[in-house]
Structure formats: structure tokens, C-alpha cells
Amino acid sequence: MRHYLHIALVLALLGTVSCRKDFLDVQDKTSILRQAYVKDLATTGEYLNGIYIELSSNFYSAATIIYPDLVADNIKPVAGGSLLASHYSWNQLTDNEQMLRFDVGAQNANGLWLSGYRIIRDCNFIIETIDQYRSQNPARADDFKGQAFALRALVHSVLVNTFAQPFSYTANASHLGVPYIVSSDYRQTISRASVAEVYSKMIEDLGSAIQLLPAVSENTLFVSRNAAMALLARIMLAKGDFSAAKNLAAGLATHVPAMKIEEGYPSRLFTLEEKEALFQLPPAAFGHDGATYTSLYAAYYFSSSSYFFMPTDDVVRLLTEDARDVRSAWVNQSNGSWSITKYPAGVVEGFPIPEIAYYQTVLRSSEMYLVAAEAYAQLSNEDSARFYLDAIRMRANSYALPVNATGASLLDSIYKERRKEFAFEGNRMFDLLRWQRKVFRSDESDPSVKELPFPSNRAICPIPLSDVTTAGLQQNPGY
């Protein structure tokens, strides 16, 4: 299945967005195009390719990755920088602005909401229609349907993390989550589900995906059964189902071991040679009708030519505390300023912007080791927790001594390692929220941006105003 088939169709689908009055409850003109185009299993596969292109070019834009580290304590704007300034100051503004992607110049995350729900409706269309073509190739049809279920869960997981408080915010997760949309029909009434309901539906979707997806797949550019199981492990950990999380994560760690130094860790992360990758997105660049469409991954804004964001002093100290740790190379100091150098440049030859010519890894097995470590620690199986923790620690630094911490100190060691391993990959704020920890920026002197307590209304993004006023969705408190 080729990844870039029928880009013109995708652009036509994307081009209909500007006339929409709100994101969720207005006629979606793409339905006319997709129903006319998708006529068999082959065109369904091409339509699915278009969903992956939108994931690369819009949903996982630079701001999607930068935002969770910026509103927490891993990334900050350069001096005088204005991009994502309202997010960094926990002062997002509600408005009706509609964008195809989460833009670094925006004052909120409306573009993430819009892009996410467009992808979700496209996944729903595949789920609704694929069975009528199943006789053409049952295994392939199941694969396509499984991918659609998994992608629907993945996008909802990002949206509920961004626009809702964590699962543990209330005793039964009864607080407001996001709409969980399971239909391509725009005419159906939309409402915000509780966080508990969102998690239940994500788990259900991933269960369906795991049943449908083939047991073995070596192509990391499409969702596989292992990727679906990894996402399920992540969700179970966030839900507090530690037994399910450790079972899934430990199993995946066995089947897809973390990449070793001799296999190219960490230099081959974010490349097709990344042996621990479970799901990756390629950089997207293509032309249509004289225009150029390019995904803007996060490293574009970290590079020397587009230096808008830098690492915080706190995360620099963490990454460089031992020069023998190979992850110390993920930050670099030049002329007195630190920069983020985690992402490789020029991985894809001929790509128009070398700084973002890499593969954005969405799920990798190193996370499964730390999911297992955290879950085992929460279950008081500390020997197993230390085993999985040390596998990541001592992989990065062969001189590191085994951990002997227990109790709360062991959990703190796991939290520290998770911050180091996944720095600048778009996880930090979501981790702090599920741990119920405040944001504290040690290098900030301005008290208004130095500390964000837990809980705080400002820890999550506002619902787009158009869906509040037109679709009747309840706005998040404080906005």
C-alpha cells in the first residue's frame, strides 16, 4: 500500500473546510467527495492513505508536539519570542478561528480540534463502509478497518488529553471529556462525553483494532497490532488500570525490545532504521495547483535557522547531569544559548526543509518499558519495576548503577527517567496531570509563569468558541 497515492483527493477534501461555520455540527462537504470516490477496497485503501497524510501534515504539526512540553517545564520561548506565548503563560484565548492544523501562531488549540475531528469522521466513514467490500479481500479489509479503529482511538486520546482534565481528576472520571464521535454523519447530535466514557470507548476501539489487525506487520508507517496494543497500554496506565498496563507493556517489551546502542540508539531514532518504532509518520511535502503543502514538525522551530523555542534550564541540567549518558546530546550549547538537538536533519533526501526531514515517531517500545516500570511500582512489585527502569537507564548510560530505590523514591526515579527519555516528544504536561503534579519552572523569575498548581483550569485548552455557541458544547471552566 503506497503512502502518497491520490494527494489531489486529500487536498480537495481539506479545501472544503474554510466555509464551515463550526467544527462538529455543520454539513461536511467532504462526504460528497468521499462517497463518489470510494467505490471498492482499493479506493478505500487510497482514502485511508489520505488520513495518514492528514495526520502528518496537520494533526501532528509542530505545535502538537511542542505544546505539552511548553505548557509544562521542558520547553520555553526564546527571549522576545511570541509563538505560542498565550499557551506558555497559561492564558489561552477563546475565539472562532478555524485552522487546518494547530498553528504556533494561534492563541488556542482550535486547529488541533478541527484537524482531529476531521480525521475521526474520515475513520468513521471507513468503518461504516468497508464491510461491503470485504469479499474482495477479507484480510485486507480487516486490516483497513482495524487501522481506522486504532486511529480513531489515537486521535481521541490526544484530544481528551489536551481539552480535558486527567482521568484521576474526579473519583469516577465523571468530569467533562470530549465528544467521542463514532459516525461520519454530521447531522447527528454531538455532546461532550465524560472522561470515563471517552476512555471506555477508546479501549473498545482498540480492542476491535487488535482483533482485526494482522499479527505481524513490519511497516511502521501504518498502525499495526503492536502499535494498537502500545496505545492501549498507555491508556490503561493513564486510567490507573496498572495490572492491564503492565501486562500489555511487558509483553510488547519482549516482542519489540528497546533499541540498543549497537543498533543505533539514539542516533537512529526518528528514522526508518529505528528498531523500536511501533508507529511513525513521514514528513509530508507535495504540490498541488501551484501551491506547496509541507508538514512542519517540531524541530523546524528548534533549528538555528528558525530558533523560536529552547530547552528550559531544568531539563538541560537533567539531560546533561552525566556526560556519559548518550541523551546529553539532545541539547547543545552554542554562544551561550541552549538548543534542542534531539531530532535528526536530512533523514529524507531531497526533502525541501532538511530540519524536518525525519520520521515523527508516535509510539515506541522504550515507552512500554517505562509503562511497565510505573505500573509494577504502583502494584508494589518493585523488583520488576526496577528491572524495566534499569533497562532504559543503563541502555543510555552503561556506567549507571542499578536503582535500589523503593516506594515513593522509586516512582520518582521512574518519573525522572520518563522525563529524560521522552523530552521534547510531546508528553510532559500529560504526565504531570495524570501524576497530579504542579508545573514549576525553576528558571522563570516572573511569578505569573513560574508555577501552575494542580488542579488548575488553565492546564487544559478551551473548546473552540464556535462549537460552544453553535453546537452547544459546554466550555471548559475558566474560559
In short, what is this structure?
43% of the residues lie in helices and 8% in strands.
Characterization of this structure:
Residues 332-437 form the RagB/SusD domain. InterPro entries: SusD-like_N, SusD_RagB_dom, TPR-like_helical_dom_sf. It comes from Chitinophaga filiformis. It is found in: Cell outer membrane. This protein is mainly α and 479 residues long. It has a single domain (7-71, 83-469), classed as Serine Threonine Protein Phosphatase 5, Tetratricopeptide repeat. Helices cover 43% and strands 8% of the residues. The strands form five sheets. Strands 1-5 form a two-stranded antiparallel sheet. A two-stranded antiparallel ribbon has the order 2-8.
Q: Which features would summarize this protein structure in a list?
A:
cell outer membrane; two-stranded antiparallel ribbon; 479 residues; two-stranded antiparallel sheet; Serine Threonine Protein Phosphatase 5, Tetratricopeptide repeat; 17 helices; SusD-like_N; mainly alpha
What are the SSEs and their pairings?
Layout: H1 7-14, H2 30-37, H3 41-59, H4 62-70, E1 75-77, H5 85-88, H6 110-129, H7 138-163, H8 195-212, H9 225-239, H10 242-255, E2 277-281, E3 285-288, E4 291-294, E5 309-311, H11 313-319, E6 331-334, E7 337-340, E8 360-364, H12 365-378, H13 382-396, H14 407-421, H15 428-434, E9 439-440, H16 447-450, E10 451-452, H17 465-469
Antiparallel strand pairs: 1-5, 2-8, 3-4, 6-7, 9-10
Helix pairs in contact: 3-6, 3-7, 6-7, 7-8, 7-9, 8-9, 9-10, 9-12, 10-12, 12-13, 12-14, 13-14
